[in-house]
Design goal:
Elements (H helix, E strand, L loop, with lengths): L16 E5 L2 E6 L4 E6 L6 E3 L5 H11 L9 E3 L5 H4 L10 E4 H7 L4 H11 L4 H9 L8 E3 L4 E5 L2 E6 L11 E4 L4 E9 L14 H9 L5 E6 L5 H23 L4 H7 L4 H15 L5
Parallel strand pairs: 4-5, 5-6, 6-7, 11-12
Antiparallel strand pairs: 1-2, 2-3, 3-4, 8-9, 9-10, 10-11
Helix pairs in contact: 4-5, 6-7, 7-9, 8-9
Length: about 290
């Protein structure tokens, strides 16, 4: 289980819905600097990602009242990590969409794993830590699809769910709202901080972002940090391409890890995590 986004940042520019495209609203939450999106439809809002706990999910529901009084029509999980899926049960009976592997991995968020995550969060987020220790109801996606992705129609709006390859995890889904020209990238993109590499695929991630570029026609909403655009996507792509290249050089012995960390586009700790994961992938050592 991995999120890797660090302690909550100071609140700057948070606390309101921002319309990033026609009837597509993003709200930036302080905890993990996370972006949550509401796509308004004639049948009610579609919520993309549900945060880290039932209480955080209830906060989304309370904040939705400023946009609509309609019940949530559906939920989409961009991937399985706890900070994107542990609020799912709060939105039932709304259908939850996600990749098949997302559903499988949500069910692996065992009590033991959650207690471990609670211990990591205890100092910075004691209330959340207590929730995780007390246990949460796992609600994996119940409307699933494979690598072929899915196109869904909800309340007169078409929403495209695209699996484009390995990246931040093995089940990342990009959400495309074509009539609003909005791309929701989940944690394939992170703005203002290095991505999380804990269960990533650094060699494949750049190619996945190349495929993602096709859908970047307007606002590009990352899983964490400021809303961006195609230029932002390309900056992340350049950084991840550098990580993949450095990983290959370390793996074949033309560069040592210390030199690769110094040359990487991230601070030392994040660079080391990224490169160690990348080298392991080159050597065929990933699960």
């Amino acid at each position: 289980m991995n999120a890797g986004h660090g302690a909550p940042p100071l609140a700057r520019g948070y606390g309101s819905w921002v319309e990033v495209g026609d009837r597509v609203f993003a709200r930036r939450y302080v905890f993990f600097d996370q972006q949550i999106v509401a796509i308004l439809t004639d049948d009610g809002p579609v919520i993309v990602d549900t945060r880290s706990s039932p209480s955080q999910a209830r906060e989304i529901l309370a904040d939705l009242r400023s946009l609509t009084a309609m019940p949530v029509a559906a939920v989409i999980d961009t991937h399985h990590h706890f900070d994107h899926s542990l609020g799912n049960a709060t939105f039932k009976p709304a259908p939850i969409w996600g990749h098949l592997r997302c559903a499988e991995r949500v069910l692996l968020l065992t009590p033991e794993n959650l207690v471990q995550k609670a211990a990591e969060l205890a100092q910075d987020s004691p209330d959340l830590a207590a929730e995780l220790r007390d246990g949460v109801v796992l609600a994996p996606p119940d409307h699933t699809f494979g690598d072929e992705g899915a196109d869904i129609e909800i309340g007169g709006r078409r929403i495209e769910l695209r699996y484009l390859g390995l990246g931040h995890t093995d089940n990342d889904v990009a959400v495309v709202v074509p009539d609003a020209e909005v791309l929701l990238a989940g944690d394939l993109l992170e703005n203002g901080a290095p991505p999380s590499f804990g269960d990533s695929y650094p060699l494949d991630w750049p190619g996945t972002l190349v495929a993602l570029r096709e859908f970047a026609r307007g606002a590009v909403v990352p899983g964490h940090g400021d809303v961006g655009d195609l230029a932002f996507l390309d900056r992340v792509l350049a950084d991840l391409t550098a990580i993949a290249d450095l990983s290959r050089r370390v793996a074949v012995g033309t560069l040592d890890l210390r030199g690769a960390v110094a040359a990487a586009p991230y601070p030392e700790r994040a660079a080391r995590e990224a490169l160690e994961r990348g080298v392991a992938q080159v050597l065929g050592e990933l699960d």
